[in-house]
Every structure is written in structure tokens, then in C-alpha cells.
Design goal:
alpha/beta, Rossmann fold, 5-stranded parallel sheet, 8 helices
């Protein structure tokens, strides 16, 4: 089984690269994290705090973080299901989240992609989204740690999405080709 982790701060290009990956190969599908709280709904499976309490009690939470007055969760049941059906593309912004996903699914060949761009590019992208919380997103951008364990790093201000998708696909394939 294979999976891709796109790691980076807000507006580093996770959504755009996921679309390009899916267009390159339909097996790449965004893993939509659970979200409880206000704000953007696109790219998430909306839930309630009560449902998250039950999921925590069942041991189904792989990773959870709070930001923008919301809770974001990578849940084991949905990720396990998607791994059987596709190559999930998991969007993360915390280094510890990468480790949590790898530990929860140690038999999966995870390709970790660090996405970067200059802060002014991220700021322009954030403002264009018109989410109304540019200050908070830029604070999150500033707080996002660099990841030392990435298989590949892509500056999305210099690499077009289609080329970035090909680079990720190439990075994700070698070990899977060797096991066939």
C-alpha cells in the first residue's frame, strides 16, 4: 500500500498539487480530514465535537490539531479504507503529524513531500482565497516547522503543478515497483 503526505504551511500548494496528482493518475485522492468548527468546508468531512469525542474514545484518532477555532482530525477508519481503494494524499502542517500517521500505518510506503514557497507568495495566495483570516493563516505559516524527513521538497512558486505532480509520482513509485 502507498500513501502521500503533502506537508507544508498554509498556501504552500497542497490543494493545487493534489488536483494535479489526481489528474495525472486517478488513484491519487485527497484524504479529507474531519473538521469540527467554522470556516472553510471544501476538502474536509465536517463533523461535530460529540462525534469526535466518540472517535477519540474508540481509539480512532491518528492525529488531531486545533487551529482557526476548529479541530482537524486524521481518523484511522477512513484512512484505512482509503488506503484499500486509492493512494491517499494526506495534507499535514505539523511535523509530529507525519510521525503519527507513519506510526499508525507502518506497513504503508509513505512518500513525504515538503511544500514550500516564499512568505509573500503565500500571503498573496491567502488573500486571494478571501477566507477573512489572513493574519491567522500567516501566523500558522510562520509557525510551521521545516521537516527533515521529506523524500522530496518542492518550491511551488518555482514549479508548475503538473511538473510537481510528476516529481511526486516519480518519488512515490520506485519502492512500489521493486515489490512487484
Amino acid at each position: 500500500m502507498q500513501g502521500v503526505i503533502l506537508y507544508g504551511p498554509p498556501a504552500s500548494g497542497k490543494d493545487t498539487l493534489t488536483v494535479a496528482l489526481h489528474q495525472l493518475d486517478g488513484r491519487y485522492q485527497q484524504f479529507r480530514r474531519l473538521k469540527a468548527g467554522p470556516g472553510r468546508t471544501a476538502g474536509y468531512r465536517m463533523t461535530t465535537e460529540d462525534e469526535l469525542i466518540a472517535l477519540r474514545a474508540s481509539g480512532g484518532v491518528v492525529w488531531e490539531n486545533r487551529r482557526y477555532e476548529s479541530v482537524y482530525v486524521v481518523d484511522a477508519p477512513s484512512l484505512r479504507q482509503q488506503l484499500r481503494e486509492a493512494i491517499p494524499v494526506v495534507h499535514l502542517g505539523q511535523v509530529d503529524a507525519i510521525d503519527a500517521v507513519r506510526q499508525a500505518f507502518p506497513d504503508v510506503e509513505w512518500t513525504v513531500v515538503a511544500l514550500t514557497c516564499p512568505r509573500d507568495v503565500a500571503e498573496r495566495r491567502i488573500v486571494q482565497r478571501q477566507t477573512g483570516d489572513a493574519t491567522n493563516r500567516l501566523r500558522a505559516w510562520d509557525e510551521t516547522e521545516a521537516v527533515a524527513t521529506a523524500d522530496i521538497t518542492i518550491d511551488t512558486s518555482k514549479t508548475l503543478p503538473d511538473l510537481a505532480a510528476k516529481l511526486v509520482d516519480r518519488a512515490a513509485r520506485p519502492s512500489s515497483a521493486a515489490t512487484k
